[in-house]
């Protein structure tokens, strides 16, 4: 979804109330999002595109402590969403015809946590202080369906680990959610990958309290992910049935292994191995005695 700037504005924008003054268009400002629905506590990535469509260069820099790029977020009931961590963009210079592309996760900067609809606007100011404001970008935050959950630890180390299925239109995603019950903090929900509900996800904790998760990503294909107790991803791999489906095994000493299936190497690694094998084969042919 794309929201394109309509008119350059003059003056300070506050609470989405503004007055528009005619001015020569100098910037094309767009706020985009590949998706419009996000899981509660998951990242909310947006894409900012700024292009200088005028004849003169444009300097984008902070003035009097005010950043050249600001986001404004409102909930569905019209309330402004508080900014918890200021976004301070680097100063930029755009020559005529030049473009700027920025990918930004809004979740760490705004308290967009409660389920519901939200409206996001972007204001970009040139050195003259005249802001260009995008039309509202509407996104929604929703809860998913918990497929597996387990509590670990005691006291302040108590955590609840959950595997959550979330509809992403057109498919499903599987997320790892780590809750801290009774504490005023949370860890971001981690997307583990595309989920195809042919089988239910399985999970095991090893002796280091790392979570090992196995789930289906397609017919005969599975993803294995390892995460620490904060939900940070440590390792992941993809396997296919060959001939049996992979399963997680927990040993008495707390070691978790994957049995069955065959590892599918990433495309770039397969190409690299193929290149090395061809080089080794060529080197072997050159060193072989004549007649062999």
Distance between the termini: 63 Å
**CATH domain class of the largest domain:** Mainly Beta
Oligomer: single chain
Which sequence of SSEs, written as H and E, runs from N to C? Answer: EEEEEEEEEEEEEEEEEEEEEEH
> Average pLDDT value?
84
Number of domains: 2
Strand content: over 45%
Rg computed from alpha carbons, rounded to a whole number of angstroms: 25 Å
Helix content class: under 10%
- Shape from CA axes? elongated
CATH architecture of the largest domain: Sandwich
Account of the protein in words:
- This protein starts with a strand and ends in a 5-residue tail after the last helix.
- It has one helix spanning 267-287; strands at residues 2-8, 27-32, 37-39, 45-52, 58-60, 69-75, 92-94, 99-105, 116-125, 131-134, 137-142, 145-152, 159-167, 172-179, 190-194, 202-205, 211-218, 221-227, 233-240, 247-250, 256-259, 262-264.
- The chain is elongated, with a radius of gyration of 25 Å.
- The protein has 2 domains: 2-141, Immunoglobulin-like (Sandwich); 144-265, no CATH class.
- The chain is 7% helix and 45% strand.
- Mean pLDDT is 84; it is low at 2-24 and 288-292.
- With 292 residues, the protein is mostly beta strands.
């Amino acid at each position: 979804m794309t929201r394109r700037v309509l008119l350059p504005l003059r003056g300070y924008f506050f609470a989405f109330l503004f007055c528009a003054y005619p001015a020569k268009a100098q910037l094309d400002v767009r706020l985009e999002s590949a998706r419009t629905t996000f899981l509660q506590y998951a990242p909310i990535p947006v894409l900012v595109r700024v292009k200088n469509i005028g004849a003169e260069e444009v300097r984008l820099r902070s003035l009097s402590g005010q950043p050249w790029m600001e986001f404004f977020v409102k909930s569905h009931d019209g309330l402004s969403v508080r900014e918890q961590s200021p976004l301070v963009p680097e100063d930029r210079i755009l020559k005529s015809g030049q473009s700027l592309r920025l990918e930004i996760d809004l979740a760490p900067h705004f308290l967009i946590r409660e389920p519901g609809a939200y409206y996001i606007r972007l204001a970009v100011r040139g050195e003259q202080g005249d802001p260009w404001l995008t039309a509202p970008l509407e996104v929604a935050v929703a809860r998913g369906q918990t497929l597996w959950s387990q509590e670990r630890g005691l006291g302040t180390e108590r955590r609840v680990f959950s595997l959550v299925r979330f509809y992403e239109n057109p498919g499903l995603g599987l997320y790892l959610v780590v809750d801290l019950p009774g504490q005023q903090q949370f860890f971001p929900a981690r997307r583990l990958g595309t989920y195809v509900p042919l089988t239910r996800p399985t999970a095991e904790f090893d002796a280091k309290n790392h979570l090992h998760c196995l789930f289906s990503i397609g017919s005969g294909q599975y993803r294995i992910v390892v995460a620490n107790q904060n939900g940070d991803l440590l390792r992941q791999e993809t396997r296919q049935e060959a001939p049996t489906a992979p399963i997680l095994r927990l040993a008495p000493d707390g070691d978790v292994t994957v049995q069955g299936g065959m590892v599918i190497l990433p495309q770039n690694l397969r190409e690299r191995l193929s290149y090395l094998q061809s080089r080794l084969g060529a080197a072997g042919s050159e060193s072989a005695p004549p007649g062999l």
